[in-house]
């Protein structure tokens, strides 16, 4: 895919080129929103809003990482939704897909070679990770999702959340520490290498 050509064409009004970009990035945009919001419907809305906003603002794109530019848009959409949820708090039920599976442990995460016991452990670990992500402040959650789940480098994360790289490093270090501490509550699910030293030496 010649991304630069597609972007330039889309900037000149070529909808087919923009749709090609949407197809290339829809999964990463949706999955980012899902990890931040932990709600399939809200994530789908945020992803749709991201691409609508991106199309309208495409002429403001001046180069650099297009992925980071898109993820900045979806991160902002997620922040907006989290602020709305604070204004109208609810007691969420554990979200499920139309097929009745938990969002935190979807089947596509399963290792096809895993035993039923390993699949259960994996599902429980995914649930624990999502639980700990949920307990992070939104600005910490965003940098963890972007850097550790989506694989952006520090400069791309900085673009996505509009913060200096030094701030990104600090937030990420603090977020990882909080996640590590939170996950010790689920240490029986963790690989030995990820347990605190005193626990792994027992």
Tell me briefly what this model is:
This protein has 202 residues and is mostly helical. The protein has helices spanning 3-11, 15-37, 40-57, 66-87, 116-134, 138-149, 154-161, 165-183, 197-200.
Topology of this structure?
Elements: H1 3-11, H2 15-37, H3 40-57, H4 66-87, H5 116-134, H6 138-149, H7 154-161, H8 165-183, H9 197-200
What does this entry look like structurally?
By secondary structure, the chain is mainly α. The protein has two domains: 1-90, Rna Polymerase Sigma Factor, Chain: A (Orthogonal Bundle); 113-196, Arc Repressor Mutant, subunit A (Orthogonal Bundle), CATH 1.10.10. It is 66% helix and 0% strand. It has nine helices and no strands. α2 (15-37) runs antiparallel to α3 and α4 runs antiparallel to α6 (138-149). The longest helix has 23 residues, at 15-37. The chain is globular. The N and C termini lie far apart (52 Å). Mean pLDDT is 79; it is low at 89-98, 100-110 and 197-202.
